[in-house]
Specification:
TIM Barrel; 425 residues; 8-stranded parallel beta barrel; single chain
């Protein structure tokens, strides 16, 4: 029996693409990632977000390309450091630029989902201690209220915070992202503060919209944790890691209720603080003694060594939908594949599971639209449906991009599409 068979979506699932501002916009701004990239050996290839995709100037070209690929949903971000380059001073010209981009998207029939924090901080905020600062929550909420009020007539869907767990672990536990600290207590403090930022931003955004429709959520990085050993001790390790990395922070952000180690006592009402569960899913981790084990060569994996495990999207969506009784949005899913050898099959495998098994999934955003500055990997990790030549800024749609476009147009995958795009997979 062939590995690939046709499928169609029998429930409504909107397919889109996702990006982050620091990763695509280019041109200098005073933020934590520009500062980090200026330090020798922090970025694998020595690149920086200074160049990226020059999307700040080329947004019309990119949106035109999205529209040509039938894309009707785009998750994009606002760069905090551009909007508030100095503490308390907001740049109206930058806001107008973002408004023009949103207006152009809407004219092309593309609906925006706006992310308000995606890993980067203004340099002035970072110097004040970032999200370890006792005033950080109020400072961030000031930005949120200002930005949302400025675009509320153009956008009614928001992600408050992207992957607080990855941000905290990489920046404050492993020290491989800014600010380069290695203290577990600080990592949990930052994760907690970002969770509170989400809870309060959720309330503020709903207050801004009043009786007008708006949907607000978070995007949390979630993984399947598997123990090397099937023993009770091995399973316990997996459960502990799941709780520490994603379970506790998701409970707090979703309900306002604390759980170890994310304790918090406040006056926030204990009711759902999101209108959907946002899941960023990429891979499964095999663990031994709380350490991740490299994926063996015979196990399917991407260019970064991440295991390709499509069943994980089913496991996680079912788990969190069952826990919180909310619709699920896959806010990121994609793979690093420089040769575009397996991206089409990766997309097929994950979307097929959504189509056949997950009727409560309403949205799917592929990460990413275009190759970009991939954080500490620099320009060496291509996740894009569209290839980017950084030297010339020439965009080329990959075969996987054409495949994804046809899935959107056909509301599924036909045998003809399998023959065209998956015959060699």
């Amino acid at each position: 029996m062939t590995r690939f068979t046709p499928f169609h979506f029998t429930h409504s699932v909107e397919l889109g693409v996702a990006t982050a501002p620091t990763q695509i916009e280019g041109f200098p701004t005073k933020n934590s990632w520009y500062d980090w990239a200026s330090i020798s050996e922090k970025i694998v290839d020595g690149s920086s977000p200074f160049r990226a995709n020059e999307h700040w100037d080329r947004y019309k070209e990119d949106i035109d390309l999205m529209a040509s690929l039938h894309i009707r949903h785009y998750r994009l971000g606002l760069e905090w450091s551009r909007i508030e380059p100095e503490e308390g001073r907001f740049d109206e010209a930058v806001v107008e630029h973002y408004r023009e981009e949103l207006i152009y998207m809407l004219e092309k029939g593309i609906r925006p989902l706006v992310t308000l924090h995606h890993f980067s901080n203004p340099s002035w905020f970072e110097r004040r201690g970032g999200f370890l600062n006792k005033d950080s929550i109020d400072i961030f909420l000031r930005f949120v209220r200002y930005a949302v009020k400025k675009i509320s007539d153009l956008c009614s869907e928001y992600i408050t915070v992207n992957e607080p767990n990855v941000y905290a672990v990489n920046g404050y536990l492993y020290g491989i992202w800014p600010p380069g600290r290695k203290k577990i207590r600080e990592a949990f403090s930052v994760m907690r503060n970002l969770s509170i930022c989400h809870l309060r931003a959720y309330e503020d955004i709903h207050d801004i919209f009043g009786n007008k429709p708006v949907r607000v959520g978070y995007a949390n990085h979630m993984r399947v944790f598997r123990a090397k050993s099937n023993s009770p001790f091995g399973k316990l390790q997996s459960e502990i890691l799941d709780c520490l990395f994603q379970g506790s922070v998701t409970r707090l952000m979703t309900t306002g209720r604390s759980a170890f180690p994310m304790y918090w006592f406040s006056g926030v009402k204990k009711y759902p603080h999101c209108d959907f569960i946002g899941i960023n899913y990429y891979t499964r981790c095999t663990m031994h003694l709380l350490q991740e084990i490299p994926v063996p060569e015979h196990v399917p994996h991407n260019d970064l060594g991440w295991e390709i495990y499509p069943d994980g999207i089913t496991e996680l969506c079912e788990k969190y939908h069952c826990l919180y009784k909310l619709p699920v949005w896959i806010t990121e899913n994609g793979t690093c594949d420089a040769r575009d050898a397996f991206r089409a099959s990766y997309i097929y495998e994950h979307l097929r599971r959504i189509a056949l098994s997950l009727p409560f999934v309403e949205r799917y955003y592929h990460w990413t639209f275009i190759d970009n500055f991939e954080w500490s990997e620099g320009e060496t990790a291509p996740f894009g449906l569209v290839q980017n030549d950084y030297a010339t800024q020439r965009r080329t749609v990959r075969e996987s991009g054409n495949f994804y476009s046809e899935i959107i147009a056909e509301n599924g995958v036909s045998q003809e599409m399998i023959d065209m795009y998956l015959s060699s997979a």
